[in-house]
Amino acid sequence: MDWMERLNGAIRYIEENLTEEIEYEKLGQIACCSAYHFQRMFAYLAGIPLSEYIRRRKMSLAAVDLQEDGAKVIDVAAKYGYSSPTAFNRAFQSVHGISPSSVKNEGTAIKSLPPLTIKIIVKGAEEMNYRIETKKAFRIIGTSFTLSREIERNFVEVPQMWQRAVLDGTIEKLISLMNQEPRGILGISACSDGEEWRYYIAVSSSDDVDDSLEESIIPGGMWAIFPGAGTGKSIQELERRIVTEWLPTSGYEFAEGPDIEVYFQPDPQNTTYEVWIPVKKKQA
Fold first, then answer.
1. In whole angstroms, what is the distance from residue 141 CA to residue 108 CA?
2. Which pLDDT score, from 0 to 100, does residue 284 have?
3. Cα-flanking dihedrals φ and ψ of residue 47, to 5°?
4. Helix, strand, or coil here: 226?
5. Domain HTH araC/xylS-type: where (predicted)?
6. Spatial contact of 247 and 206, defined as CB atoms under 8 Å apart
7. How far apart are CA 146 and CA 159, in angstroms?
8. Of 88-97, 116-125, 209-218, 226-235, which gets the smallest average pLDDT?
9. How far is 50 from 25, CA to CA, in rounded Å?
10. DSSP labels for 177-218?
11. Is the predicted pLDDT of residue 1 greater than 70, yes or no?
């Protein structure tokens, strides 16, 4: 089974379990990657966050159920996992723009999101530079924060973490302690299944740490490394291209390990950087 078949298999699993609790770890297992990497792939390929897709699919089916004679809002809410009618009403209105009870009115317009099938069309219009490197384990020192299991929330929270680190002097302090490869300010997403997800702002260093910093070991492994330049938005665009253009035809797939961003200049509006993606050779 190839990469695309596994991904669509995970989407079929979503469709078959819309009335049950959908475990992101299970989706990752079907797609042969972590829950973190599955969410990233899904968002970039589908153009919609995974949690939002699931919510819209549930509300699409809920609207159909509510049109049946005798259907009760409270029963339909419970069917799709909403113990609170208020939460169901809020979710329903966010998709359809009307209350659940309004669906029974003849002529009411509702929305339908059909199940996704993902296909890759490789355009090849713009080349991508990368290298594959096997790295030994290295020690980092810095500060870390708990990440949400729904990664779209982190797109808001992580920039705030960086802003605080700049304002409170953490970035300046880390730069003075950096003395090992990779030589740059590191943004590390450590998001293995079965463990707490954490984001590190750190440097590679052999120095001792005081009470304001923490240390951790980044395990050795193989990374696909992509250079880039620009702002935070350019990094997101590079990561989108890695998933949608490079990964499907690269001969590699996601491996267990942290995603790493290496910033060679501290200015977030004009920096050079590298994006490290943990990979392994694709299984035949």
1. 58
2. 61
3. 75, 20
4. strand
5. 8-106
6. no
7. 14
8. 116-125
9. 13
10. H--SSS-SEEEEEE--TTS--EEEEEEE--S---TT-EEEEE
11. no
pLDDT at position 245: 87
Tracing tokens 């590079």 back to the chain, one arrives at 238
d(CA 235, CA 204): 21
CA distance linking residue 64 with residue 54, whole number of Å: 16
Strand partners, 223: 133, 278
Model pLDDT for residues 39-80, shown as the tens digit of each residue: 988 998 888 999 999 999 999 999 999 988 888 999 999 999
Q: What is the pLDDT of residues 140-184, one digit of tens each?
A: 999 999 998 888 888 888 889 999 999 999 999 999 999 999 999
Which segment of 159-163, 211-215, 232-236, 253-257 scores lowest on mean pLDDT?
232-236
Angle at 283 between CA 277 and CA 284, to 5 degrees: 140
Residue 226 near residue 274 (C-beta atoms within 8 A): yes
Q: How far is CA 197 from the centre of its chain?
A: 11
Amino acid 112: pLDDT? 83
pLDDT, averaged across the chain: 89
Closest to 99 in 3D by CA, of 56, 66, 54:
66
Token reading at 47: 């153009």
Q: Which of 162, 178, 158 is nearest to 170 (CA)?
A: 162
